[in-house]
Design goal:
Elements: E1 13-16, E2 20-23, E3 28-29, H1 36-46, H2 50-55, E4 60-65, H3 71-83, E5 90-96, H4 102-109, H5 116-126, E6 132-138, E7 143-149, H6 152-155, E8 164-169, H7 183-192, E9 193-201, H8 206-214, E10 217-223, E11 230-236
Parallel strand pairs: 4-5, 4-8, 5-7, 8-9
Antiparallel strand pairs: 1-2, 2-3, 6-7, 9-11, 10-11
Helix pairs in contact: 1-3, 4-5
The chain binds S-adenosylmethionine.
Residues 11, 30-31, 66-72, 95-98, 151-152, 170-172, 177, 179-180 line the site of S-adenosylmethionine.
Length: 239
């Protein structure tokens, strides 16, 4: 019998303005309450130059720390389908310790009408999540999504070395969610990164910046989205 998630695994959330989930456990929002869609495009899509990289890509592999509402995934997947060569596949691997319950996931998805073409493929299968790998092959979107359910510290060593083109580091803030930003996570992000691969994150915390530099990333700061002062992005040059 397939192992199911128990109720305790799901994230306990509240809603701000009925549109932005807030984790009651971590006391942090999943994305900017001002405009999560624009924030995600700014922090993850633009900072990693995904438009130009997708348009000339062979297959492309994004990994993400924190699947949450799937917003980053849906934006990347939609962009992939609009500009990547038609014989290529997007692989998207995302780690998630506390998946949203199905009703919350659907409510978040319903906020983003422009992403309906992606969420419509995801919603029917999302309710069957189990611990470990959840591989959704979506040929119509030329995408293979793997939601890895569990603590990223336990699961991240399974990612093959030098396989990832781009990392989205999207845990809650390091001050409230330090388990998402451990030495184990950063060293395995590095191990899995292809040479010249990139990463970005909404945080500019000094300890995260220093850890990335120590592991071989050239890290730059740029203005953060909305009220956030700064964010960082990096290119992996090898240690
Ligand atoms: C800021 S939210 C992610 C938002 C998401 N990328 C989106 O597009 O909606 C952070 C996510 O990290 C997850 N998380 C927190 N600690 C974790 C851990 N140790 N391992 C895996 N996931 C974790 C949370 O459950 C939450 O879904």
């Amino acid at each position: 019998m397939t192992e199911q998630l128990n109720n305790k695994t799901y994230c306990d959330i509240s809603w701000k303005n009925d549109t932005t989930p807030i984790s009651n456990e971590y006391g942090d929002v999943y994305f900017s309450a001002d405009n999560g869609l624009l924030e995600s495009k700014y922090v993850f899509i633009e900072s990693n130059s995904l438009s130009s990289r997708f348009s000339t890509a062979d297959d492309f592999h994004i990994a993400e720390a924190g699947f949450g509402t799937g917003l980053n995934f849906a934006i990347a997947c939609k962009l992939w389908n609009s500009i990547s060569p038609s014989d290529t596949t997007l692989f998207f691997t995302s780690f998630e310790k506390h998946p949203l319950a199905f009703a919350d996931f659907r409510k978040a998805a319903n906020n983003w009408k422009e992403l309906e073409s992606v969420y419509s493929h995801l919603l029917p299968t999302y309710s069957n999540l189990k611990p470990g790998n959840n591989i959704f092959d979506i040929p119509l979107l030329r995408t293979v999504l793997n939601i890895i359910v569990g603590d990223i510290n336990d699961m991240i060593p399974s990612i093959p070395s030098s396989s990832i083109d781009c990392w989205f580091l999207d845990g809650f803030a390091p001050s409230v969610n330090p388990q998402m930003w451990t030495e184990t996570v950063i060293s395995n992000v590095t191990k899995s990164a292809k040479p010249e691969s990139t990463l970005s994150t909404f945080t500019a915390a000094g300890n995260i910046r220093r850890a990335l530099i120590k592991h071989g990333y050239k890290v730059s700061k740029k203005p953060g989205f909305g009220k956030k002062r700064e964010m960082i992005f990096g290119i992996y040059h090898g240690s």
